[in-house]
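User: quick one, fold this
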Amino acid sequence: MSWKIVERKIGKAGNLKQRQKRQQEWNKKYGDNWMIGYIIDGEFVSQEDALENVYYESYKQHFENNLEDLEELINTAKTLSNPHSKATGGVDLQVPAIMSYLNRNNLELKGNEVVDIGTYGEVSHKISVRLSPLTIKCSENPRMTLEKFWQDKKCLAIWDTSL
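Assistant:
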């Protein structure tokens, strides 16, 4: 038994209504034994695990290789915001990944401002662009941005009992 990829390049998650519609379609087609994830090192990895192994790890590598970005973020921001997620109802991944990095390293934001993470609309600071998943290199494939990997490599798998 193992996970079998049944759909590749499934695209963006969308807002809550769009996600629920797609999930209902998958439930009709595959029952309740499907999962969204990624192929990493030849193995299917759930999206939840990929949040740790790819999303968090990409920000961790960025901060370790760009200490000036980390210092600027800490000294500028009081809080972080994802305007794209707020405007579209989409899932916010970058703010939780950054906050997880800060928490795990006993770091805290010391600034006075709300700093947008991403490039949606008018960005609040230059650091907003540098920390966007559209510019962060992906830990799994440094030739891709985190956003490109996250969207292009996402797949749908079903639990296949015949293997």
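User: anything notable?
Assistant: DSSP finds seven helices and six strands in the chain.
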